[in-house]
Amino acid sequence: MNDNPIRLEFSIGLNYEIDQPGSDFIFSIQACQTNHQLIISEYLNVNQDIPLGSYTDPSSHNKLLRLKGLPGILKLEYGGAVDLNHYLAPPSQIYEMSINSLPGEVLIYLYPSRYCQSDFMKDIAVKIFGNMAQGYSRVQAIKDWVTNHVRFCNNTSTEHTTAVDTYLSKAGVCRDFAHLMIALCRALNIPARFVTGIDYGSDPILGPTDFHAYVEAYLGGHWFIFDPSGIAIPMGFVRLSTGRDAADTSIATIFGSVRGSTPTVSIKAIPNAQGDLMIPRHVANAVSTGD
């Protein structure tokens, strides 16, 4: 573990207008605590005087906040600071694992899922990547192919867009890039999962800071980060939730009649406990913050 971690401070603001008789919410906006992402401080403010429930999934580390909002305006403010102690490894030493050597909890990330129809992508994946040497370099090649195949463009996909749709349209946003890469990895028996977070260092030309979706592939006993959208810095991701695809990692799941506005998200690097300001950067090594 790095003795001089990157410390990132962040905040999230969500605003809703709720109709009668009220609505139920499940939020996944809280930072995960893992061996490589340590929560230094956090706060949660809700403008309504209502009970709050919480649950942490033991396998994914996802934190779920549950509440029943009253009619009217609901405002949530969540933020804090985390230390990122990245696990780094030379790509040449990272290998693909045989199916029988994978931990049981990883197996679910081999299967097709709602947005990642790896069974439909198998012939394509084998044709393009099947003859490549196995290991980190092959997964990096999948990432690079998706980055080059898909054009980043807002308003080109919907919440129903799948990996197959993105393969055919060749356009999308970060979640679409992630779904396509995951489907291709799983088609080659490489476990891959979807991660929602906040990214430090994305190109300002893309607009204000927002939530970001990226990919983790399980190689050599670790979950390594890949950003097929190519718009951010993997060392600057704050992990919020992890799952098979976007269906498992929604920022807000709402039951009822609600109108929402665009979230406000901010993130910046601050001095760590040693007083050093460590800035996320691109590195040649493979990067992991997953357990």
Description:
This protein is an alpha+beta fold and 291 residues long. The protein has helices spanning 118-129, 136-149, 163-169, 174-187; strands at residues 6-18, 23-27, 37-46, 53-56, 63-69, 72-84, 87-89, 151-152, 171-172, 192-199, 211-219, 222-226, 237-243, 252-255, 258-260, 264-270, 286-288. 16% of the residues lie in helices and 36% in strands. Helix 3 (163-169) crosses helix 4. It has 4 helices and 17 strands. The mean pLDDT is 94. The radius of gyration is 19 Å and the shape is globular. The chain folds into 2 domains: 6-85 and 250-270, Immunoglobulin-like (Sandwich), CATH 2.60.40; 92-242, C8orf32 fold (Roll), CATH 3.10.620.30. A hairpin with a 6-residue loop joins strand 4 (53-56) and strand 5 (63-69). Strands 1, 3, 6, 15 and 16 form a 5-stranded antiparallel β-sheet that branches.
List keywords for this structure.
291 residues; alpha+beta; Immunoglobulin-like; C8orf32 fold; five-stranded antiparallel β-sheet; globular
- CATH C-level class of the largest domain is Alpha Beta
CATH architecture of the largest domain: Roll
What low-confidence regions span 5 or more consecutive residues with pLDDT below 50? none
Mean pLDDT: 94
Rg on CA atoms, Å: 19 Å
Distance between the termini: 12 Å
Helix/strand order, N-terminal first: EEEEEEEHHEHEHEEEEEEEE
Q: Helical percent range? A: 10-25%
Class by helix and strand content? alpha+beta
Largest β-sheet summary: 5 strands, antiparallel
3D shape: globular
Q: How much of the residues is beta strand, in percent? A: 35-45%
